[in-house]
Design goal:
Number of strands: 6
Largest sheet: 6 strands, mixed
Strand content: 15-25%
Distance between the termini: 39 Å
Low-confidence stretches: none
Mean pLDDT: 89
Shape: elongated
Length: about 300
């Protein structure tokens, strides 16, 4: 197909690319897999007769959702064999995402982990309906169900998510303040300062993917988490530094060890303090963050 023939398709795809990427990422929890889905979507899109497409945005979302569902079912088998705790691939986000409270919350680490407890179809329906307000008819075409069935799935998925999602999430400003207090406590190794900023039932999850050392299971409770952090810092063979950035729509830390990227720390902050710490160390999940942070330093 000639370049001229694909120009309208290209323009439409580029116009909706950010939306399609976010849909794929929220379904998969992996930026790398989301990029692959977009490539698959593009290859199918350029073969479509645009003259017969009434709503091009909806059609692209439909292709993306179908490709993401196919990949999600394959990824489920990979996750079953995953070493240690699994966390979504961290995604650096622009300030305007953090200002969009609903979108920022939809890509947060905490909610992405809740979405992992849904079936692939439930996840697709929930994401398309609640995060992007896609119509039931359009969702039905994307997931291969009737609109009536999609309404039932959406209701069931929403109940499931609402029962598990954090209820007392605070503003980005409060999150940043708590994160900066956490950063100072870590840098000074101040156990009491850590205890002051952590919620009593704080949960620490670390993902090393079997490649880098990480706690294999969740650690729950402020005292256990604080002592583990302070104890672990004493064993670090080098100098740790941390900088605040925006990760998955919320303030987070990018951590370097002797100048090399060690991991990223996302947090969930509630009225009682930091209630969730999510540390990604798996190098395969840090490629995108590493390349983007290097570009930002230039």
């Amino acid at each position: 197909m000639s370049d001229r023939a694909t120009e309208p398709a290209t323009a439409t795809f580029v116009a909706h690319r950010n939306l399609l990427f976010t849909v794929a990422y929220e379904l998969l929890g992996s930026a790398a897999d989301a990029e692959d889905v977009l490539q698959e979507t593009w290859l199918r899109w350029i073969d479509v007769d645009l003259g017969r497409v009434r709503d091009q945005r909806a059609y692209l979302v439909r292709i993306t959702t179908r490709q993401a569902l196919n990949r999600l079912r394959t990824m489920r088998r990979r996750k079953e064999a995953y070493v240690g705790s699994w966390l979504p691939e961290p995604l650096l986000t622009a300030p305007d995402v953090a200002e969009d409270v609903e979108l920022a919350e939809s890509v947060s680490m905490a909610l992405m982990l809740v979405l992992e407890t849904l079936s692939p179809t439930e996840r697709a329906v929930f994401v398309l309906r609640d995060a992007f307000d896609v119509s039931y008819d359009e969702i039905a075409a994307a997931v291969g169900r009737s609109p009536a069935a999609v309404r039932q799935i959406a209701h069931r998925a929403r109940q499931h998510v609402n029962a598990r999602r954090p209820r007392d999430v605070v503003s980005p400003g409060e999150t940043r303040a708590a994160l900066e207090s956490f950063q100072r406590a870590v840098e000074t190794g101040d156990l009491q300062a850590l205890l002051d900023v952590l919620a009593p039932e704080v949960v620490l999850v670390a993902d090393g993917g079997g490649v880098r050392q990480a706690v294999p299971n969740q650690i729950i409770g402020a005292d256990k988490v604080a002592r583990m952090i302070v104890g672990g810092l004493g064993k670090v063979p080098g100098r740790l530094t941390a900088a605040v950035t925006l990760l998955n729509g919320s303030p987070a830390l990018v951590v370097h060890l002797d100048g090399e990227l060690d991991g990223v720390m996302a947090v969930r902050v509630g009225k009682a303090g930091i209630g969730g710490l999510y540390y990604v160390r798996n190098p395969e999940k840090l490629t995108r963050v590493e390349s983007e942070t290097r570009l930002a330093r230039r």
